[in-house]
Amino acid sequence: MVFKSYDTPSLIAVGFEAALPTGSERRGLGGEAAIEAFVRGAVALGPFDVLAEIAYEWNVNAHVHGEREQTVTAGVAVGYLLTRRVTPLLELTMVRRLCGTDDEDGPRLRGRSQLYVTPGVNVRPLPRTTVRFGVELPVPTRGRSTTILGGGVREF
Known about the structure:
The chain has no helices and 9 strands. The model has no long low-confidence stretch (mean pLDDT 87). The chain starts with a strand and ends with a strand. By secondary structure, the protein is mainly β.
């Protein structure tokens, strides 16, 4: 965290994330390994939380054929504090592939922006613990797949 305000609850954070392979890339089973640098900001406006992010991701997987992927992602999300434990949210995300090889039978993504709308919910089952779920919907939806997202955060 590089900035935090108490007058209007807000913060800015800078950091890195790592994505680890969940299967074999050669067999088409989600074998991506990547590192992402990001800047995120958030502000609480009454019962609404507004979050924004910009990130740059490098694919570091040695088994990828051709040029390794690099993408820029920018997004904004608005959540409504329904209860102390439940926050439904809506996120708008733009992804642009800068480098990388397009799949032979897939859409041409290099140099094009992709837009996604993600309705979701954050649940706090325990103090300092958040579980999140959402459905990432591509805009437009023609010929593009929907992704179910989930994750957990443990604050230290």
